[in-house]
Design brief:
2 domains, five-stranded mixed β-sheet, single chain
């Protein structure tokens, strides 16, 4: 690693920064990124849309707005655009997710390069990113949590690059503006990026390099996402800040004691988990990365925030890339005899979690744990069952009927798949779907899909059937019930039915 001595940014102790950055390991890194993208493209048409994809697509096509309870408008807008431009194409729909994941592999290597990592370190950081079960499997879906890790990693890469160049008297303030533009996209994807930005600013103010805080370009960069977030914040305020309610729901769903172990599992069995832990130690203790020590404290600040307030383990996935990069730099001068066999072992789990199994095999072996099978299948059977029940109603009941689904993912599937089949608009009192509105006042016939009973809220009920599927999935086993004559007007009933 080529380094040069320089005075600390705040006139503090001398630090050493790479000058120039080591050559980019272009061929192996780009090949890794291309392989990841190609794998995800090949698997894109497998199975069906996942629960969150259905929700995002329904939100974008039928309920496009400036904000939502649980997500922001960027991915719903993108989902609706792709479905309109390429109707019915899972390949086109999921292509941005595949590209984002492959690009994340490359950006993780670029972070390692800015840290002073040689070709071996860059390839290791890229490989660790590619072998993360969460990052790879999530790259199969077009969701907000797919885009977030790339956004976080790219922001950190630009900041690290600015620091390295500034340490040698080179001012590239456009890098700071680039961070602001990416942050503007990130805040329209998920609000969690606000936690990252706050942690970065606080850690930099405490540990340095404080020179970045004196740059006007930084504060312009901060203003960009703030200004672009005004419509979303206005929507949140107008609707009673439902994002806070979503935070409470997430906290109740997750065990804080399992946050770190599960996040390490998501980062990768063997290689990913080890590199995350070692990478944090390198950022906090390595003299070679002294100028970037604030990133170690940023990681701890983000972790503590979600431990205290409650969060999902995948909220930490945006930090995997920088931790992989720091660990790879710390290991670059050590023997790699065990690293590459460990990478091969680490590849087994993420590959097994992808939709690689034929569905007839999964039908014969329901004991096989398979996340895509559980959340990506059963939607045609669900739609067919509800459509048959709706068509069996007398014509006068059909005219007054609405479909109400117990959960947002059932509602999303029936909204997306059911409308072309002739179903009326779908409603749900669950999470973000509740904000899409209550059934109209004259809707006194309800086809309810779910396992919860609403008998206390209607004067008449009749069980019509159950969703059957040859696979174990989220659709199978849901009851279809005909409810008539609501006991209260919908404006009074709808808040009583709401669930988080």
């Amino acid at each position: 690693m080529h380094t040069s001595a320089t005075t600390g940014f705040d006139g503090a102790a001398t630090v050493r920064l790479p000058r120039p950055a080591p050559p980019f390991a272009r061929t192996p890194v780009l090949v890794l990124g291309a392989l990841v993208t190609a794998l995800l493209v090949v698997l894109a048409p497998r199975y069906d849309l996942v629960t969150d994809e259905l929700y995002f697509l329904a939100a974008g096509k039928f309920h496009l707005d400036w904000g939502y309870m649980d997500q922001q408008p960027l991915v719903p807008f993108l989902a609706a655009f792709l479905d309109t431009a390429f109707p019915g194409s899972l390949l086109a729909f999921r292509l941005p997710a595949a590209l984002a994941t492959g690009l994340g592999v490359v950006v993780a290597a670029l972070v390692a390069r800015e840290f002073g990592g040689n070709g071996k370190a860059q390839v290791l950081a890229a490989a660790a990113y590619a072998l993360s079960p969460w990052l790879l499997v999530n790259g199969h879906w077009l969701t907000a949590s797919t885009m977030e890790p790339l956004q976080w990693t790219a922001m950190i890469w630009l900041l690290v690059r600015w620091i390295r160049l500034h340490g040698h008297g080179i001012r590239r303030d456009r890098l700071l503006l680039g961070i602001g533009l990416i942050a503007a996209l990130a805040v329209q994807t998920k609000f969690q990026v606000v936690v990252l930005c706050a942690a970065l600013l606080l850690s930099t103010a405490i540990t340095g390099p404080r020179a970045v805080l004196a740059r006007p370009a930084l504060w312009v960069a901060v203003a960009i996402p703030v200004v672009t977030a005004v419509p979303t914040l206005w929507w949140q305020a107008a609707n009673g800040w439902p994002a806070l309610e979503m935070g409470t729901a997430v906290n109740e769903e997750n065990d804080r004691l399992l946050l770190v172990p599960t996040a390490l599992f998501y980062s990768g069995i063997v290689v990913g988990a080890v590199l995350c832990c070692y990478g944090l130690a390198v950022l906090l203790r390595s003299p070679a990365l002294h100028a970037y020590r604030f990133l170690g404290w940023t990681t701890l600040a983000v972790l503590v925030f979600f431990l205290v307030t409650g969060g999902r383990p995948n909220y930490l996935a945006g930090l995997f890339g920088v931790l992989f990069a720091a660990a790879s730099v710390g290991l670059q001068h050590r023997s790699g005899k065990l690293l590459w066999p460990a990478c091969a072992i680490s590849a087994v789990l993420p590959l097994a979690m992808l939709p690689v199994y034929p569905l007839d095999v999964l039908a014969r072996h329901p004991e096989i744990p398979n996340y895509p099978r559980l959340y990506e299948t059963g939607w045609p059977e669900l739609t067919d069952a509800v459509t048959r029940a709706y068509r069996a109603l007398p014509p006068e009941q059909q005219r007054r009927a609405v479909v109400v689904a117990e959960t947002y993912y059932l509602a999303g599937a029936l909204d997306v798949r059911g409308r072309p089949a002739g179903l009326p608009r779908v409603y749900s009192p669950h999470r973000g779907y509740w904000f899409f509105g209550a059934p109209p006042a004259d809707a006194d016939v309800v086809l309810y899909v779910g396992k919860r009973s609403l008998s206390d809220h209607f004067r008449r009920s009749q069980r019509l059937g159950k969703v059957e599927s040859g696979l174990v999935n989220m659709a199978r086993g849901n009851e279809i019930t005909l409810y008539q004559a609501p006991a209260q007007p919908w404006p009074e009933l709808w808040p009583r039915l709401r669930t988080l």
